[in-house]
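Postdoc handover notes: sequence design on the structure in folder B. Input tokens:
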């Protein structure tokens, strides 16, 4: 009997997944009736130009005047009882649209789906010269040693840009360049690192909260009674999402030698844990580093624990739950945990660190990988402790599929005829937290332009998204209906000086892998439609500023006096020469000086 009830329950959940953005019945019920009359006949919905449809279910129907944005739809053939799907793509506009029904004789149920991502190549909303400059710019950086990049941009529901640059693996373990490198394609998947937090855990929790299966005010000890002591009784689900639960940033459960966060200074890691159950026990024992709710300190542990709570609530593994409830529903074929175990080959994945997790053989711990990481999650806690599936890291995807996932936020919670979560829940997740405007519930926010280094200073205060340590960025700009996804494998390079700065990879010394330049150029491309001549002059000025800026840093700051920054600046000077036809003498001198530095003269 229990099995039958469980099957019926799951069927109800499955059916409820297929619900629309708007579903309204006319005439309105007594409970919903408004004596101002007009409000009973009209409502607003989200749509984009050149796409959309509505479903009309009618009974005892004789007549109605139905309008979208003031344009009357043809409904003369609707009589009696039936269902009709009507294309409204010729009358929709970007963002807010208005539905109206008047002179209704009969009963009418109206269903309006969420927008989808179209791929209309004729629908170009950007300045082509600016996009051409972006393309040249990234290619110049690849020539200078940038490992790779993948970009997807959706504007007003249409895929406007999709491009790939560089190679899946660039160097041998000793840092010498691979001869027969494999090019990145639009299908290549990247290790999303901390973007996993948003496109697995956050989406799952928004759905569960929307379905009232989880409450943000729930205390962690409701799910794990053993989570107590040292202020842990105060920690709620919302605190984990806000990174204010008190956890240390990185307790390194995978590292048997790490002895900083276990509270027992004895030369070994008493929180060392391999395997989900042991990691859960280790999290329960992890001493809090500060009083919950009093500060904001980004911690992977918050999302590791959230992932476990999701599994507890759903009785499913996190990867299975996400696949069944999100990725399959959106027809995402390249979004997954553990890609090598799911039919993806190594050369279809962008490689990360050259010498495992050793930072070029300067860090060691039990079972540390020492081979080039490709197709396996780079993050140590996700790989060693959680076997590749964790709430904080482990998800792989390509730029297009991540952009499609991000579009769900622009769509206010759904896609086509699937509602994942309601707008009220979404609004609660993306609003600023009280003590730090750059955080929402999990989401990183532009806030008072605190996050402009990644999102760009051109993105509005309401922009949300996230970054990932491997070199990934997602930007969701609701005011412009804009999604930007930039995926790189910045860590697919040597470490500059592993003994001094083990996390300072050559691949992080390019403008592309520092995010803000790319997001700024993309937003500018959709904002400024100036003439070809004016645009090229302006892009050249931007290029000159970046060349001068980096050249000055190389001259004055030892952190920038390395082969990556030098090569990058030289290739950008070469690009300026190509674009202008003739270099001013100051850039000729710069290039000569940089080439001398590079040769050691």
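Designed sequence:
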């Amino acid at each position: 009997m229990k099995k039958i009830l469980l099957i019926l329950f799951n069927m109800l959940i499955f059916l409820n997944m297929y619900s629309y953005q708007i579903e309204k019945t006319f005439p309105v019920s007594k409970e919903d009736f408004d004596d101002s009359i007009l409000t009973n006949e009209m409502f607003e919905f989200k749509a984009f130009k050149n796409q959309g449809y509505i479903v009309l279910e009618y009974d005892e129907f004789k007549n109605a005047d139905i309008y979208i944005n003031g344009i009357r739809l043809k409904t003369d053939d609707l009589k009696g009882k039936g269902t009709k799907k009507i294309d409204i793509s010729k009358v929709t506009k970007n963002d807010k649209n208005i539905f109206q029904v008047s002179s209704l004789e009969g009963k009418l149920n109206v269903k309006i789906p969420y927008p989808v991502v179209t791929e209309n190549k004729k629908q170009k909303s950007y300045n082509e010269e600016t996009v051409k400059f972006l393309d040249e710019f990234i290619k110049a950086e690849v020539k200078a040693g940038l490992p790779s990049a993948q970009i997807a941009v959706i504007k007003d529901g249409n895929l406007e840009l999709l491009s790939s640059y560089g190679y899946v693996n660039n160097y041998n373990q000793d840092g010498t360049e691979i001869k027969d490198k494999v090019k990145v394609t639009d299908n290549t998947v990247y290790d999303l690192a901390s973007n996993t937090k948003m496109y697995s855990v956050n989406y799952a929790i928004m759905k569960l909260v929307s379905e009232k299966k989880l409450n943000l005010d729930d205390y962690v000890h409701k799910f794990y009674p053993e989570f107590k002591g040292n202020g842990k009784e105060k920690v709620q689900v919302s605190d984990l999402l806000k990174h204010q639960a008190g956890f240390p940033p990185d307790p390194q459960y995978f590292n048997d030698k790490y002895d900083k966060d276990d509270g027992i200074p004895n030369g070994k890691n008493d929180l060392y844990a391999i395997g989900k159950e042991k990691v859960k026990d280790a999290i329960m024992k992890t001493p809090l580093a500060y009083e919950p709710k009093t500060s904001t300190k980004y911690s992977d542990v918050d999302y590791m624990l959230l992932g476990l709570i999701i599994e507890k609530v759903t009785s499913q593994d996190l990867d299975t739950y996400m696949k069944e409830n999100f990725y399959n529903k959106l027809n995402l074929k390249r979004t997954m945990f553990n890609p090598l175990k799911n039919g993806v080959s190594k050369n279809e994945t962008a490689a990360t660190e050259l010498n495992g997790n050793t930072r070029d053989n300067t860090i060691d711990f039990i079972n540390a990988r020492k081979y080039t990481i490709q197709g396996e999650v780079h993050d140590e806690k996700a790989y060693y402790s959680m076997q590749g599936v964790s709430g904080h890291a482990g998800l792989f995807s390509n730029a297009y599929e991540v952009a499609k996932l991000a579009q769900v936020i622009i769509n206010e919670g759904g896609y086509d005829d699937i509602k994942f979560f309601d707008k009220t829940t979404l609004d609660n997740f993306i609003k600023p937290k009280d003590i730090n405007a750059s955080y929402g519930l999990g989401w990183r926010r532009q806030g008072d332009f605190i996050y402009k280094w990644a999102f760009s200073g051109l993105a509005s205060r309401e922009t949300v998204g996230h970054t990932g340590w491997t070199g990934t960025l997602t930007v969701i700009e609701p005011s412009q209906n804009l999604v930007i996804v930039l995926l790189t494998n910045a860590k697919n390079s040597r470490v500059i000086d592993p003994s001094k700065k083990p996390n300072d990879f050559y691949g992080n010394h390019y403008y592309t892998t520092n995010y803000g330049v790319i997001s700024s150029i993309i937003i500018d491309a959709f904002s400024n439609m100036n003439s070809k001549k004016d645009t090229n002059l302006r892009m050249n000025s931007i290029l000159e500023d970046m060349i001068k800026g980096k050249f000055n840093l190389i001259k004055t700051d030892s952190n920038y006096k390395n082969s990556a920054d030098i090569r990058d600046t030289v290739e950008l000077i070469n690009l300026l020469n190509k674009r202008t036809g003739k270099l001013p003498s100051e850039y000729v001198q710069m290039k000569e000086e940089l080439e001398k530095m590079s040769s050691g003269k």
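Context for whoever picks this up: Residues 25-112 form one domain. Don't rerun without checking with the PI first.
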